């Protein structure tokens, strides 16, 4: 069955026809509105905290059938800018970059990451023994998405999801491995100062793509975001509709 889900605005224009076969209206859909009475105290209606209350709550589906290949070739150049997704994110997130000659400014040989997960700087050097020091994390893990709605997507939609900058962050390699496919209920970055932004990004990704959460996951999201009720959704996430007065 061909399933259309909302995609980030930045991807919709460039990828809707190429990857999903859906028209723009079908992809974006209509965002549900929050009633004023349903909003958490002090949470603006389009904040990450308010949006977390809109995520559907269901049980985790079986992981049966999950395979990374179902999300397309790893780090494919989906935006056709001549550079793979991994290097796109390294160039976005690293400073003091050294780029490889002859790659049209694509391949990052070295740079410095202000790692959001640990709060520490990491010197990145491209090489067989060192590249893994900085990894590209799927903030909402691919396996987690599979268990919470992505089984119903077609391969082009999963490919778009796997390469969407909204869902990608350069991060400390060992911490990314520690996270695995954990959700908000099972893993948070040790850097407390980044937790609100991290959870807001998970909320934004799940809301944009129509993925669900478990009850424990939503409880954890609300718990973290209640400490920062005005935290916005990340740029590129689908914004909820403005609240409507309850009848």
Question: What keyword list fits this structure?
Answer:
247 residues; alpha+beta; two-stranded parallel ribbon; 9 helices; globular; disordered N terminus
Description:
This protein has nine helices and seven strands. The chain is α+β, with helices and mostly antiparallel strands and 247 residues long. The radius of gyration is 18 Å and the shape is globular. It starts with 8 loop residues before the first helix and ends with a strand. Residues 1-37 have low confidence and may be disordered.
Map the helices and strands.
Blueprint: H1 9-20, H2 24-28, E1 33-35, H3 48-52, H4 85-93, E2 94-99, E3 108-114, E4 121-125, E5 134-138, H5 142-146, H6 155-162, E6 168-172, H7 173-179, H8 195-209, H9 215-225, E7 241-244
Parallel strand pairs: 1-7
Antiparallel strand pairs: 2-3, 3-4, 5-6
Helix pairs in contact: 1-6
Helical content, roughly? 25-40%
Counted by DSSP, the helix tally is: 9
Shape: globular
Let me know the average pLDDT.
87
Low-confidence spans = 1-37
Strand content: 5-15%
* Structural class by sheet pairing and helices: alpha+beta
Number of domains: 1
This entry's quaternary arrangement is single chain
In summary, what is this structure?
This protein is an alpha+beta fold and 247 residues long. Helices cover 31% and strands 14% of the residues. It has helices spanning 9-20, 24-28, 48-52, 85-93, 142-146, 155-162, 173-179, 195-209, 215-225, and strands at 33-35, 94-99, 108-114, 121-125, 134-138, 168-172, 241-244.
